[in-house]
Amino acid sequence: MTARELFQTAYESRYTWDENFPGYSADVQLVQGTEVYRGKIRINRDLSVEVSGVGDEQVHEGIYTQLRDIITHRQRIPFEQSHGNLEFTVLATDDTGAVEIQVKGDSMGSNYKIRDTLICQVRRVMGRMAFVIDTHEIMDTGSGYVATRYDAVFHNAKTNEVTSIIKFEDTYEKVGDYYVVSKQVLREYQNDTPNTTEFSYFNIRLLEPATV
């Protein structure tokens, strides 16, 4: 297989929501240390995000950003539309059999490692910052995989000094025909001190499909 074919197969093996996804609503709870915040969230059919009832503006923004990140990975965009104009090159195969592929052509050069049909690593440079995301555990939904345990290491692109490490654990729940995140635990390490944030979603309900 060519580099493009390898990447396309892995890209299309991810679990994404189909065009009939109606959106959903839920109650949200965020726990950080001894502080607990509650509110409501809504993901609309067009994948826009609404957060309400959270008194703290910074926490409100944190929940919104976390949901936007989740949606980015569940949104179904055809390969040709998202990657059609990019250039793919196989660089190497590591000891585990993962194939490293370089992708050029967008504003951010990216390197990926693909093992079987799984994108197991992403490396990207964004100006002065660079990051590496490694996937350690996945769940097979039967319609594609979702990452359930992964970590992100951020470092200075010039000095390679590590500035932050975030470890993620995601739990998915099937609601109707769709899998959605019901819990996400983030452990952020700066100067070796962990800071844990836990997002939990309750009473998850799909929205009623729009009547024509």
Description:
This protein is an alpha+beta fold and about 210 residues long. It has one domain (about 5-205). Helix content is about 15%, strand content about 55%. Strands 3-2-1-12-11-10-9-8-7-6-5-4 form a 12-stranded antiparallel beta sheet. The model has no long low-confidence stretch (mean pLDDT about 95). InterPro entries: DUF3386.
Q: What key attributes describe this structure?
A:
single chain; globular; 12-stranded antiparallel β-sheet; 3 helices; DUF3386; DUF3386 domain-containing protein; 12 strands; 212 residues; alpha+beta
Give a topology summary.
Elements: H1 3-11, E1 24-32, E2 35-43, E3 49-52, H2 57-74, H3 79-83, E4 87-93, E5 99-104, E6 110-115, E7 118-126, E8 129-140, E9 145-156, E10 162-175, E11 178-190, E12 193-206
Antiparallel strand pairs: 1-2, 1-12, 2-3, 4-5, 5-6, 6-7, 7-8, 8-9, 9-10, 10-11, 11-12
In short:
This is DUF3386 domain-containing protein. By secondary structure, this protein is α+β, with helices and mostly antiparallel strands.
Question: What percent strand?
Answer: over 45%
Sheet with the most strands: spatial strand order = 3-2-1-12-11-10-9-8-7-6-5-4
**How many structural domains in the coordinates?**
1
Q: What structural category characterises the helix and strand content?
A: alpha+beta
Over all CA atoms, what is the radius of gyration? 18 Å
Principal-axis shape: globular
Distance between the termini: 44 Å
Low-confidence stretches: none
Q: Please write the string of helix (H) and strand (E) elements.
A: HEEEHHEEEEEEEEE
Q: Count of DSSP helices?
A: 3
* Main beta sheet: 12 strands, antiparallel
Number of strands: 12
Q: Into which percent range does the helicity of residues fall? A: 10-25%
Estimate the mean pLDDT confidence: 93
Protein name: DUF3386 domain-containing protein
